[in-house]
Design brief:
Elements: E1 3-6, E2 13-16, E3 20-25, H1 29-32, H2 37-40, H3 52-64, E4 68-74, H4 85-88, E5 100-101, E6 104-105, E7 127-131, H5 142-148, E8 153-159, H6 161-174, E9 178-187, H7 191-206, E10 210-212, H8 214-224
Parallel strand pairs: 3-4, 3-8, 4-7, 8-9, 9-10
Antiparallel strand pairs: 1-2, 5-6
Helix pairs in contact: 3-8, 6-7
Length: about 220
């Protein structure tokens, strides 16, 4: 087992590479592309684009070392049977989950907007977790996938920092996984919320996990090569 030390806040963390995986959260067209669900709610999707290049670098480094890469997609069944009213009815008609949007029905599995953007698309043999909620552990087999493979440490990337990423980090912490957030591989539709979510994660000695960036992770991985 190869051990590496990742410089992070509030403290550096030692990890075993064979117990470490990368999870890339919800890099979907509906969130990142113009004309998608995110933009329909009045958000500036260009704020999320900065995550693409650093995520690409980290994915490549993980693949080069045959380490586990997991992708997630938020979305619902076409009949909306897995979408609670609290989520479905929050928005006005025409912008609700399941309504017709520029890239198909909004956040419905199999529609164009539900797909992961080409720049960080999964390889055929990589695991894709389809989740009906924000937390990637909610009503999915993510925990079982990680346990089966002996994963203890999760490098966390994706969008958005303050919603699906932070809830997944909290879920990981509750289940005994070390969540290591790559700050430049995450973004929110509002920079204030992005920074606040990172502060919460690393507060009080790392109450939910650690915060680092892609370059520090790449440096740690290079020392193990």
């Amino acid at each position: 087992m190869t051990n590496v030390n990742i410089q992070a806040e509030p403290t550096p963390i030692d990890v075993k590479l064979d117990e470490t995986a990368l999870i890339v959260i919800d890099m979907q067209k509906d969130f990142l592309r113009h004309g998608g669900y995110g933009e329909s709610l009045g958000n500036d999707v260009d704020l999320l684009a900065r995550t693409i290049a650093p995520i690409q670098q980290v994915i490549k480094a993980m693949r080069d070392r045959a380490m586990l890469v997991i992708h997630t997609r938020e979305g619902h069944l076409p009949d909306l049977s897995d979408c609670p009213a609290t989520k479905l009815l929050r928005w006005p008609e025409g912008r609700r989950i399941g309504d017709q949007g520029p890239m198909g029905r909004i956040l419905i599995r199999g529609e164009e907007g539900h797909g992961i953007i080409d720049e960080v698309a999964p390889l055929p043999d990589e695991i894709v977790i389809d989740k009906p909620g924000k937390n990637a552990f909610y009503k999915t087999d993510l925990e079982a996938v990680l346990r089966e493979r002996g994963i203890v440490n999760l490098l966390v990337a994706g969008v958005t920092t303050d919603v699906c990423c932070s809830t997944t980090v909290s879920g990981a912490n509750d289940r005994g996984f070390n969540a290591i957030v790559l700050a430049d591989c995450m973004a929110a539709y509002d920079e204030t919320r992005h920074k606040a979510a990172l502060e919460i994660i690393k507060a009080q000695g790392g109450i939910f996990g650690w915060v680092t960036d892609s370059q520090k992770v790449l440096q740690a991985l290079s020392k193990a090569a």
